[in-house]
Fold these 2 entries.
Entry 1:
Amino acid sequence: MNCRQALPLLESLVDNELPEAETARLKSHINDCNHCRQGYQETIHLREILSRNRVMDPGPQYWTETTSLILARTTELADKAQVHHLPQKTRHYGQVTIIRSIMSVVASITILCIALLIGSSLKKQNVVHYVKNAPLLATTDLRDLLQVKDHPIYTAQDQINLARGALLLGMPGSLGRFAGLSDLFLTIDLK
Amino acid sequence: MRDMSKTVPELVESFAKGDQSAFAELVTRYRKKVYSLAYQILRNHLDADEVVQETFVRIYRRQKELANVKYFSTFLLRIATNYSIDLLRKRKGHSKIEEDSSSLPGTVQLDLARRVVTPSQKFESKRLGAEIEKALDRLPPRQKMTAILHDVEGYTKTEIAGILECPEATVRSNLHIARTKLRKILKHKHKRKE
Ligand SMILES: [Zn+2]
């Protein structure tokens, strides 16, 4: 083996990468050759210095604290990841919310319609009833009638019932119509 | 509680499936390797600490990728190395944080000469260590990294190729160039001393 063959193999020898036969041949060359021996020894020396250049261990307390910090940070990440999934859920919930609100609007409209129907039918019934019993609803007419105390059609009770019924049903304009209600009651002879 | 019975591939598989305790065990097993490597590159405790934390947080973020990772340690050290080099570039130009070993929390020298050394030898070793650090800092990042990973941290060339994402031949040539430069620097120092 000559220097040209030996030199590129020196590092491999230091790193223990050569097959036995080649190691033996190289070592015998190194023994005979000052130049290659110097290169080999320098490389070994450098590896030694480098391998001694280890880092100080910061100690168990540091490791405990740092590991807790890492785990806290990753737990936070995991929590955030879960929050990150939420928009999908919200989107899902959003759809449900829309359906729900549509349903509630429909329900409200239905209830309103039913209420109006019932209300109007009630009104009609009552109005019909009162109209049947007391066809005259105008205050002026009433007053006129009341002034005639022994009117054959409207007894005092008829008039009171008429007024109460109109108020109870909240008939439009009932208060206006019975604006003089207190007067009415005062003037009605409850006997 | 630590699960020391599991192998690294088993832990990685468990963690990829969402097992948090497997992640904690991986942190415990690899934290020193990451710290040591980062410290070699950055030469100060604060930066090495940042690398340790950030590396494991990044690993955590890539939890799902881990199912397809063949060599966890290579994957982990690649993240650590890349982050360290990023920090190194960021720090360059800024005043370097000089750090005395005594400022480290509860410092324990991991490997101060396994053999018995005399005070003068110890001093010599420390002086050489400082010299070699300076010499390493003068190397381009890839060469520096290769030398540190191989000759200081003891990784194989195949492992380094995986960590630095380059062919093994590149690792060999970078190591050779780095060693040649370092030898020259050391030789020069010795000559000046003589
Ligand atoms: Zn020779």
Entry 2:
Amino acid sequence: MTDVSEKLLIVEDLSTTFATAGGPLPAVANISFDLGRNETIGIVGESGSGKTVLSRTIMGLQPRTNVSVTGSVLLDGNEMVGASEDFKRRLWGTEVAMVFQDPMTSLNPVMRIGKQIDEALRVRLGMSKQDAKARAIELLELVGIPSPVQRYKAYPGQLSGGMRQRVVIAIALACSPKLLMADEPTTGLDVTIQAQILNLLDELKERLHMSVVLVTHDLGVVATRTSRIVVMYAGRIVEIGATRDVFANHRMPYTRALLESSPKVSNASHTRLITIPGRPPNLLKLTQGCSFAPRCSYATDKCHQERPELQAADQPGHSFACWNPLPTTRGDSAT
Amino acid sequence: MLELEEMALVERPEKKKPLGPLFWLCVGWIALNIFGAIFANVLPLQNPLYQNYSAINVGPSLHHIFGTDDIGRDIFSRIVYGSRVSIAVGFGSMVIGFGIGAPLGMLAAYRRGRFDTILTTFMYILLAFPAIIATIAVLSFWTPRSVFKIILVIGLASVPLVYRVIRTATLSVATKDYVIAAKVQGAKDRRILMKELLPNIAPIGISFLLIGIATVIALEGTLAFLGLSVTTPTPSWGNMINESRTVLQQNPWLAIFPSLALCLFLLSLNFIGDRLRSHFDVTEVKL
Amino acid sequence: MTDARQPLLKVRDLKVTFGKGSHAVSAVAGVSFDVYEGETLGLVGESGCGKSTTGKALMRIVEPSSGSIELDGADLAGLKKGGRQLRNIRTRMQMIFQDPISSLNPRRRVKDIVAEPLDCWKTVTGHDRDVLVSDLLSKVGIDPAVYGNRYARQFSGGQCQRISIARSLAMRPKLLICDEMVSALDVSVQAQILNLLEDLKAEYGLTLLFIAHDLAVVKNVSDRVAVMYLGKICEIGPADALYEAPAHPYTKFLLGAALEADPDSPMNAQVLEGEPPSPMNPPSGCRFRTRCPNATEKCASEEPQPQEVAPGHQVSCHYPLSITRK
Ligand SMILES: Nc1ncnc2c1ncn2[C@@H]1O[C@H](COP(=O)(O)OP(=O)(O)OP(=O)(O)O)[C@@H](O)[C@H]1O
Ligand SMILES: Nc1ncnc2c1ncn2[C@@H]1O[C@H](COP(=O)(O)OP(=O)(O)OP(=O)(O)O)[C@@H](O)[C@H]1O
Ligand code: SF4
Ligand SMILES: [Mg+2]
Ligand SMILES: [Mg+2]
């Protein structure tokens, strides 16, 4: 496609398989995508589709035991798969940082939030105590925490969920990473707070010239915040493309089902929702066909026997994995 | 009729590791010991009190398979009879401890409020006394000692411990939505305690019970070692170990066999308790 | 529009306060509403605004500190806690909880869970009971022959929620309070459960109080919607009208923050700044005034009373946004 050096992140044929008591569990399978600089990509999928495993694998955060990672993750030219802990540690914070879903578990409850930001600055950037404190307060201000000087001394438990998530973002931004991985950064927050945090991420992305991977199960979150989205199902990409194309011209039945089954504010009361029967497959018992076939109303014999690979759709950069793709000329009626 | 979505129920496998042969071996061992303790009179055993002066301090032989002690009593038969005291004390005092502590703990955790506050404060004050020293103190004054008195004292001393464990276990269950749901269905307190709470704390209770029995049996051994268990010549495992002290040089068997019996019994109990707990642990898998 | 119908549930000035003295949290601070027979009233609001507490106070799982609750003309708030009369109400009013998995006892069989209310009340016993349980289970889409003897812990969240629904319907209640019953579920499963709920509502003639924080979900199931902020209802009205033309500034912000799964939807132009104040010391006057762009001194000194801006559409604001219907 475009010049390789243009891309900040290139993921190629990435698979993560856990060895479990029930056999190998392919949580992430054959995933390829890339991400330009200053771009936001959304990763959407239902619970268990492998979003968290994928983002952790990209960061090189998988535990060393009982897991095998194959493929390649090139982060600004650095190969993450198989890299040593030391090497990855040098990249964490400066190249890539992560915002986790639950701010309470990613903050140390018995340490003042200021100290937690300081830590990163002093260890990673070798700042002096005063400099680190000044920068920490600057960061708190950057993420929109009112009266940052006082809050510098607060403990995580004294902050609301939204404030905590801002602190987590401040910590992630401490060493000015080029890529921010946000795993469900707003799940569990209220809509008004969610809007604040998403706006903040957007604004910071522009201001600091970062790229963002926004992982979420909520299609609403990615609709207006991303330039491209990846739809995952059972550990694989089933559709990828520009956000607008995926929403308006999706070709894969699962994407459609996902869009149609989410209730909409603009629906009239008592609108009957379109549902997908059943629920996502057990990753230990995947069949060789399309993983969506058992729930798909378009499924044919071929779907049950052979797995569809990603194929290009009409729009550039848009591809989908389906043997019986939905027609293209449906206009916008389905969205 | 309803139009129902066809459901592809993907079952969550109930993957449980079998308890394993070692577990059953331990169960068998405990059963054998209990059997021996109950039927010691009718089993073809030698009299544990009979002193055979022509066979003093002999090692294991065909006639005395564990040998004899310094006054010619058969060690094997003394161990079997001795298990009576150990087992009776272990089980008996836990019956008392659980009989009082468990219902109180459950009720307090379920009711909460003032009842809980008062009872829990009281129990914690009791817990602040070192139970072992209290037991020793009471037993050294309350003579003559009998199995019954020992059971009573240890049993009562264990009540606060049992109370604390059961109350904590119940608390974590009592705040679950299904308990509120049962209340909302119109279930009465009794029903909630029996149907919703009990089954969920039983696994913790049972494993704590087994480990408690083991602890008490060890405690009885300690008391005997201090000369505070049943009065000699009645054998108990602890008594026997205590008696062996003086003749350890001439006859090590006298110490080895009762210690072995005690160790194996305690190990088996602890192992069973541990296995049962992990076996019954239904970790609620999230969606 | 709603006047002709009888309210099944009538709540007046309901208050719930947790704790005492300076630590008192007034979680519900005077809430009044009616739920008419056969309708679904949605209750939305942000985390901590007192939605669940309202639902639980109606069920008397938490004790209301004042106010009246009338179900079908019978007063509930005055009934003695733990008394027989209160217990009798349980058959007419049921609740479904947020966490589907923890609302079922993991060590009981599905059949027994669904039969629990029947066994408590002994209304149906023996063979009839088994038939009724099987019937309920198949109504919620769970094959009783295959899954009836399974333990609750073997089911996924969506299936657990189905079982909860079956259990709540066993005594054929009139009113069902659903507290965030789909928030823990994935969208595809959520849609199944919402459709199921609509079907059962029609079949059993249920009246629903549907508590949720998800505006889209509430819109899809409700006839009328009440919006809560910091323990009070700030706006209540017909769902379509309220969503189309909110009269309370808070409702407007809330709707503006709701994200539509549509790339062309307008980016929320105005975002509500700050966070809700603590219910421990709520602001004087209008509770929303600290975050409201239209607030004046009157808002700080005087508490706005509910006023009707359109038939059945009430708003508690000194300066309601003008309602211009499209
Ligand atoms: N350490 C692990 N060992 C074994 N299996 C794992 C491990 N971590 C994750 N999995 C499995 O991998 C699959 C994908 O999980 P993942 O957490 O990535 O899903 P997700 O898309 O992030 O879902 P959610 O929306 O619930 O966060 C799941 O089936 C999960 O059970
Ligand atoms: N048992 C309790 N003791 C003390 N305070 C409580 C208790 N239960 C709830 N609260 C407080 O009451 C307020 C309202 O809580 P409630 O659970 O009703 O909110 P909610 O609207 O249901 O929020 P959510 O969307 O998070 O479920 C909160 O401030 C909460 O902290
Ligand atoms: S490949 Fe077949 S089963 Fe899979 S989504 Fe397409 S039509 Fe459905
Ligand atoms: Mg995840
Ligand atoms: Mg709630």
